[in-house]
Structure formats: C-alpha cells, structure tokens
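Deviations from the work plan: none for this task. Representative record:
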Amino acid sequence: MPEAPEVQSVLDALKEPLQDRQVQSVECDHPKLCANESLADFAALLCGQHFRAFHRAGKWLVLELDQYELLVHLRMEGKLYVVDEPSEDPKIRKHIHLIVHLDDGRQLCFQDVRKFGRMYLYPKPENWRELPVLQQLGPDLLEAVPDIQAFKASLARRKLVIKQALLDQKLIAGIGNIYASEMLFEAGIHPDTPANTLSLEQLERLLQAGHAILQRSLANKGTTIRSFESTPDHTGGYQNQLQVYGRKGQPCPRCGTPLVLEKTGQRSTYLCPNCQKLSD
DNA sequence: CCTTAGACCTGGAGGC
DNA sequence: TGCCTCCAGGTCTAAG
C-alpha cells in the first residue's frame, strides 16, 4: 500500500503523540511481526524505552528509542497509529497485531489485514542511516532528485525495463506501483523501455517528474486507493490528482486517447499508448 | 551477479 | 446467497 509520501504522512502523524513517551507494556499476537527477535524478546526489549526521534528512508519508518532503533515496514496494508483506545469493532480489532501501551495511557497500534508488514529491532548505531536494512536502499526520491549520471550508471549493465527499475528499492527508493505509472506518464516514457537505453535527458525528466509528484502527494497526505489512512479516519487526498493509475479506458488527460492497462513483471501498469511510445 | 516465478496473507469485487 | 476466480499501494526466496 504505502509508498514514500504515505509513509512520511504516517511518520508525521506519529511524531507529536510519541515524542518522549515511554513504553509501559506490549501486546503482540503475531510471532513473525518482528523479523529479527523472538516475540518475547521483542516485547521485553521495548519495555521501558522512550521514543526519541523519528525518521523515514524509502518506505521504512525509523523510530528511535533510548537504546534501539525500531524499524517498521508497512508493506501492502500495514497501519501504525496512536489512539486513546483501539477500535472495539471485531473486524478491525482482529487485525491489530501489536499494541504498545504508553506512559500517558495512549496506545500505539499496528494493524495489518494481510500480515505482510515487518519490524526490526536493532541496537542503536552512531547514526541511524548506518542501519543494515537501510544500507541496501538507493537514493530517496521524495527527499531529493538524485544525481542523474550516477542513476544512469547504475542502470547501465542491467537488463530490465524502466518500470521495474523504478520499483527496485536498491536503485532508487520510495517509489511504488502507483507513482511509477504516474511519473512515466508525466515524463512521456513507455514503461517497457529498456532502462539502459534511456538518455540522461529522459532520466532527468523522469526523476524530476517523480520527485515533484511525490512532493505533491505528500502535501495532500498521500494517496488512498483501497485502504490507506495516515491515522484512523484520515485518508490521503492525492488519488484525485492521479493522471493514469486506475484509469483504464478513460481519456488521457493530455491527448484524450483511452488509457490502457498492461502487466510489467506481474504488476499493473497504466499508460497512454499515444503519449508514451515505445521504439526510440 | 542478474532475472523471474512463486510465496507470503486476507478480504473485496465481479461472474455465474 | 454462495462459490469461484481474480485482484490489491510490497518484498523476500528459490531456482535457472
């Protein structure tokens, strides 16, 4: 579900309620939630810690504690939010897999229908950016437009199409399936173009467009297609500005040609067959 | 090293 | 109403 703007929206919503709060106790019913600690150790290590700082890298949330970094990846449908009391609706309640009780009586909840979301708990390094999982990530496109020469070089010896390259977090971080379609449309590039055939100018146009789209989406608190909420009842607003994603058959906003849906590497891709020509 | 299919999960939507 | 199939904002793994 969430891409960089949605993750940033979640993080922004957590900062105020979590700042300097202490963990009193932890309830967790999902042994696989924390990928690098047993359930018992995970809960025990969290207890007594205070939330001290908050960061995002790509689609990762980084919650800094006194002695640990808690990394959270929401994957497709994970939600992380603070409430006075979690919902009593059993349909929601059954998907809350972690409750962290805070010293002000409020509760940090992790809710995830599909149980794809994952957390890691690591001892705090000197700098949070040294965390092993984050070392794998390419430059973050929400944060800045990366160096285009370097990006081109990273694609040079790869045999993959540009749509797939945009989704590879090692090459560039923060883009997901929605914004990949949007930025390719904005830049007028066909998703199946071999990534290593794009010119510097094309890549520049693509990443500039992508950065602007991610920033604009963040300003709207993200995109809500199915289920995204930064906090309960707070949906994003960017879905109203999507140009192509989810709009199969509707007229291209630029030329009026019906938009099409195709699969690239098992994932849906939306494009305008007229504005985004293959060949070259 | 790189690429690709399958796995991980659940629920909603649409066809019959 | 019920059953079946397909689909979903992501990423890891196993195998070629």
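The CA atoms of residues 138 and 171 of chain A lie 5 Å apart.
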